[in-house]
Amino acid sequence: MDKQIFISEIFQEYKKLLEEFIKFKSVSTNQEYQNDINSTADWLNQLFKSNNFKSKLITGYDNPLVFAEFYQDKNLPTVLIYGHYDVQPADINDGWSSDPFTLTISNNRIIARGAVDNKGQVLIHIATIFKLIQTNQLKYNVKFLIEGNEESGSPNIERFIEENKELLSCDSVLISDGEMSAKRPNIEVGFRGTFNATLQITVGSQDLHSGIYGSTAPNAIHILANLISKIHDEHNRILIPNYYENVDDINDEIRQNNTNIPFDIEEYKRITTRKDIILFDGNDFYTQTGLYPCIEVTGIIGGYTGEGYKNAIPHKATAKINFRLVSHQRAQELFDKFNNFIKTNIPPYADFTFEMDGSNEALKIDINNKYIDHARSVLEEVWGEKVIYKYVGGSLPITNYFYNSLKAPLVMIPLANEDCNMHGVDENFDIEYLIKGIKFSVNFFSK
Ligand SMILES: [Zn+2]
C-alpha cells in the first residue's frame, strides 16, 4: 500500500477514536468525575479487546489501570507503552474558544482537553499498532499500561509496578508525553530528582522590644538571611562544600548537544518576566537546568508581616527550600551536606531544625542501547532533523519506578508541539506534528 495513504488511513481512524476518547471528562483531580473515569477505562478495555488484544482492568491501586497485551512470538522483543487517560480539569468559562470536551479542529490544530496530555499522544501508538496488526507489519510484542491517576500524582503507581514486575516485564519502555523543544525531535534522557526541606532557626522563646534590646539580642531573621546568602555565589553556583561531588562530568559531546538546541534569550526573558538569566561556569540554559543540581529557597516565614509595624526582634524564622539533584547524587547525601553547612555556619547562640519532606532520585537514562538508536534513526528520518537529547530540569518519578523495577531501557519521545498549552486553555495538537508522530510510530514498530 502507498505509504501516504497508509498514514492518512491511520489518521482518519485515530481522529474517530480521539473524538470518543476526548468526550469522557476523565478528570482525576476531582472526585466528581469518578463515573467518567470508570467509563474511560471501560472504553479503552473494550477497544483493545475488539482489536485482538488481551486486555483487563486492574483495580486496587486507586483509579482502574488498563493493561492490554498483544503477544506474537517469543523471539520478538516486547515494548511496554505507558500513558494516562486522566486529564486536568477544564471549563469553557476559563476562556476556551470551544467546548474542551468536544474535539474541535481549528488552524490545523486539534483543540481539546487531553489533545496532547495524554490521550492524543498515547492514542497515536494505539491506532498505529492496531493498523500494523491488521496489515501484519507489527515487529514487536506489545503491552500497554494506561493509568488514570497521573494528573493527581500517581500515588499508587510505584507499588503497582513493584508488585507486577512479571506482568510488565519487557525489553523496552516507550513513553510519549510532553512537548518537543526547538521544533526538532527530542529524546528525553534525564530528569532531575527532587526533595523539599524546611529549615527553622530559633534564638529563644519570645520576640523582644527592638528599642530596648536592639543590636544586642540575636535576631532569627538576620541569621536565616545570612545563611541563605552563603548558599550561592553571585552566579548561582552552590558554595556548600563538595556539593557537586557526585555530579557526572559533562563532556564536550553533551555540551555541544545542548548548545545546539536553539535558545532565545529574549524569549526566555519574555516567558520568565525576568530581566536576565544567571549562568555559571560558561553553562548554557539546558546544561545548567538539566545536568546541575539547584537549591531554591521558595518561602520565608518570620517576624511581623501585618499592617503597619511591630518593632520586635523575631525569635523564630523559617525557610522552605526546594532541592533538585542530578545523576549520581542522592537526596540523603545532599540533605546531609546542607545540614552540615548549617551546623558549621550558624552562630553558637542560635538553634536550628532541618527536616526533609519526601524525595525522589535523579534519573539519567543510558542512551547506549538499540532502542534509543532505533528511535533516533526513525525520528531523524521522519523529521529530517537531528535529534536533541534533552536533559529535563523537572522530575518525573514514574521513570525511576520503571527504570529501577523493570531494568529495561526507557525511550522517552515527546510528540507534541511546544505551544500545545497542556494544562491550560485551548490545549492543542498541531496536526503536522501529529502526522509526524504517526509516521514515527509506524516506522518504530514496523522495523
Ligand atoms: Zn499533565
List keywords for this structure.
elongated; 18 strands; Aminopeptidase; Alpha-Beta Plaits; 2 domains; binds zinc ion; alpha+beta; 447 residues
The first-level CATH class name of the largest domain: Alpha Beta
Helix fraction? 25-40%
The chain-level structural class is alpha+beta
Spatial extent as radius of gyration: 25 Å
Main beta-sheet annotation: 6 strands, mixed
How many individual β-strands? 18
**Strand portion:** 15-25%
The residue ranges in which pLDDT falls below 50 over 5 or more consecutive positions are: none
The N- and C-terminal alpha carbons lie at a distance of 16 Å
| CATH fold-level name of the largest domain | Aminopeptidase
Number of domains: 2
Q: Which of globular, elongated, flat, extended, rod-shaped describes the shape?
A: elongated
Roughly what is the average pLDDT, rounded to an integer? Answer: 95
CATH superfamily annotation of the largest domain? Zn peptidases
Number of H- or I-type helical stretches:
13
Q: What ligands does this structure carry?
A: zinc ion
CATH architectural arrangement of the largest domain: 3-Layer(aba) Sandwich
The strands making up the biggest β-sheet line up spatially as 1-2-6-3-7-17
